[in-house]
Model the fold of this input.
Amino acid sequence: MIAKLLRSAALLAALGVAAPAVADTTLHILHINDLHSRIQPISRFDSTCSAEDDAAGECFGGVARVATAINTLRDELVSAGENVIVLDAGDQFQGSLMYTTYKGEVEAEMMMAIGFDAMAVGNHEFDDGPQGLSDFLDQVDFPVISGNLDLSQSDLLNDRVGDYVVLDVNGLSVGIVSALATDTVETSSPGPNVIFQDEVDALQADVDALTEQGVDMIIALTHVGLPMDMAIAEAVTGLDVIVGGHSHTYLSSTDQDRAGPYPTFVSNPDGEMVPIVQAYAYSKYLGHLEVTFDDDGNVIYAGGNTMLLDAGVEPDAEIAARVAELAGPIEATMSEVVAEASEMIEGSRDVCRAGECTMGNLVADAMLDRVRDQGVQIAIQNGGGLRASIDAGPITMGEVFTVLPFQNTLATFQLTGADVLAALENGVSQAEDGAGRFPQVSGMRYTWDAAAEPGSRIVSAEMQTDDGWEAFEPETVYGVVTNNYMRGGGDGYSVFATNGLNAYDFGPGLEQVVADYLAAHAPYAPYTDGRISGVE
Done:
């Protein structure tokens, strides 16, 4: 069944789109992005799915389904004499207990088993520093690239991550260039020896280098997010296709609930249309782009779709068995029920990176509750640290870990009112881009204006007291709790690192704090109370 679903010609016919009359050179690009260690199947809330729900046909994705989808389509296309490449646009790391437990070994093993042709470095590949990426590179034999990284000062990574690669596809030379978001220094832990260069400048230089080598088909495999991909398409000449990640964007040529069309076309400086694709995240979809080039290497046709990997896709039996084996040591702990929720707890990135969400309230409330007796008055948690929703009903420890996979610990410090406002300004400064720095809070409330210039968006901010709400006073010192990542300046919260007084990485793990809070308030009733509001 999946083979029929994945036939591009049938899909295009169903859409009423004519395929090219003469196929000069056609390339099929199969791609995923932002797997985030969803090695096991996922629920409709993007968290690890239970075996019972999977057996009932209620789960999606997981690498065993990814393997089936890729192998089925690749085998079918190759048998028909077509040209096929399989690409990953980064962020294999971080997001489940598979990564927490095995630190990239499982991701490497599964990518090798499936057979990827190239991978872009994602920001989360640096979550355990350059050493974590280096260990991953030791285990894979496909090229891992990122062209805007200067790694000459890194003993671990120098000469190991290429700027680009040229793939030989049935005698065709296909160039793959790449770029990683420059704010990775704020969203992950690349360290001081990984130097970032401008994405557009680096990509243009690499495209020019490939063009000089006579490579006519050039694909950008990026981890910068759809808005930046569109800016790249507008600015870089000689680039034929962009396969992206980072923003978890769902593009589709058929689904009305999509974030945009698949592919999305943007005109380059020469007036040529560049197709851009992305396939959401978490192993839920496989992207399939069909591109036809003329004899001069110009794109004359691009079409395809993202394909939902639901229960209709039979998991690869060998890989599924290996995943079950790897999951064994952690299943007992993760299946422990810690609490119950009366309703779904909303933790999706679309909500928690744009405004108040019930998961943000839960996590921030739990943080503040844990340390309030230490004189702490407010909690600030980055929305990007919340990685899934939790369904109504029993809550397992595994679900809590899926929401909070980063092994962050509680950190406390003191901050002046002026610096609290500066932190909030940073938090809302990139909300339109869905940046993870968006501040979820407890013990306080704030109003912001999305239409104002970044740096001047906070309209008001008040702390909750026994007598009501009081505005933050610039010189008054307040007790703050956050996670250790933010306390160290992550997600642009440099004011925490530079101006925080009496900073203390208190611990314990944030996931345990939330689990304990849920248990103490079971059954937990999710709520919002207007603590974050926007100007209308």
Summary: The chain has two domains: 2-15+24-325, 336-534. Residues 317-334 form the longest helix (18 residues). Residues 1-23 have pLDDT under 50 and may be disordered. The first strand starts at residue 25 and ends at 32.
